[in-house]
Amino acid sequence: MAKSSMIARERKRQKMVDKYATRRVELKKLAKDGDVEAQIALDKLPKDSSPVRLHNRCRLTGRPRGYMRRFGICRVVFREMANDGKIPGVTKSSW
């Protein structure tokens, strides 16, 4: 289980990204056209409002590594759930 402070920090970043998403898109469009003031305004936005700073985490444990995008969980939880038959269509392979 990940530290609860790290999970909370990631949630805070996600809220910040959602809050500034439209503003960031508008400013990026203007800055791409060469507007210097838009670039300055973009620089003044909070760092955590950038989607690049987000990190995928397991929904159940908060584990940051071994994340499987398709399922939204880490490999450890995926294996446990697959062995218990809780993920439809996933079976243990054998050859």
From TrEMBL:
The keyword RNA-binding applies. Keywords: Ribonucleoprotein, Ribosomal protein, RNA-binding, rRNA-binding. It holds the Pfam family Ribosomal_S14. GO terms for biological process: translation. One of its GO terms (cellular component) is cytoplasm. Belongs to the universal ribosomal protein uS14 family. Binds 16S rRNA, required for the assembly of 30S particles and may also be responsible for determining the conformation of the 16S rRNA at the A site. Part of the 30S ribosomal subunit. Contacts proteins S3 and S10. This is Small ribosomal subunit protein uS14. It comes from Bernardetia litoralis (strain ATCC 23117 / DSM 6794 / NBRC 15988 / NCIMB 1366 / Fx l1 / Sio-4).
